[in-house]
Amino acid sequence: MSNDLKPGEPIHFYFDYLSPYAYFAWRNLPPLADKYDRKIEAHPVVFGKLLDKWGQLGPAEISPKRKWLHEYCLRYAALHGFEYNRPKSHPFNPLSSLRMSLREVSGNDQHRVIDAIFEAGWTQGQELGDLSSLEAIVEQQGIDAKHLSQQVSQPEVKQLLINETAMAIEKGVFGVPTIIIGDNLFWGNDQMEHIELLLSGNDPLDREKLNAQVARPRGIDRKTFIKLNARE
Predict the structure, then answer these.
(1) Distance (Å, whole) CA 77 – CA 128
(2) Are the C-beta atoms of residues 83 and 123 closer than 8 Å to each other?
(3) How far apart are CA 167 and CA 151, in angstroms?
(4) In angstroms, rounded to a whole number, what is the distance separating the alpha carbons of residues 213 and 199?
(5) CATH number of the domain that 43 lies in?
(6) Is residue 218 part of a domain?
(7) Nearest Cα to Cα of residue 19 among 135, 168, 187
(8) pLDDT tens digit string along 128-169?
(9) Torsion sign, CA atoms 89, 91, 93, 96
(10) Where does residue 166 fall: left (phi above 0), alpha (psi -120 to 50 degrees), or beta otherwise?
(11) Beta strands of the chain (E only): which ranges?
């Protein structure tokens, strides 16, 4: 039942800085990639566009879920030994930070840029929606902040982020963080155990059973149920 991967199959990481879960996943992914000698290819995407595509609300848009989210994050950080402080403003406009983090913009510094922005936002509680704040964050890591900030307003860079998001949607990405390895999609920061099983060649997933389960007909759609319930 194990799913063999091609030698050197990279780990594709889809993220938006709006998500603390993406930060948690990013903290855990590099050691796992190193252990199994896999390269991480990071893909900044616009979370809001994913939500629009699949007809979802973000956690921060649902009041009780927003409170639960911060409870979960504080517990998670305490259990894993690091500070959790949400960004100064949240939600914020993530476009500048995402464009800075494109491989075509940050080049060989991409992972350092991602490290710096995630850490500043979700551990230090800094502002991530302001370009001058982002410049200061990456400059502290010895990265050419001025070059990055000049790139984020370029039309071709804006299009690159649009393309990354569109390609993610084509691959079935519906939320962040998403990790794709070969044909295997994992969603959420709690998937590291499953990812390691796949990387170690011990994935217990029964694909025949999966296909059979997915093929089962749906009994009723939610909108149809609501209409029927309103008539009774």
Answers:
(1) 20
(2) yes
(3) 21
(4) 24
(5) 3.40.30.10
(6) no
(7) 187
(8) 999 999 999 999 999 999 999 999 999 999 999 999 999 999
(9) positive
(10) alpha
(11) 11-15, 40-44, 178-181, 184-187
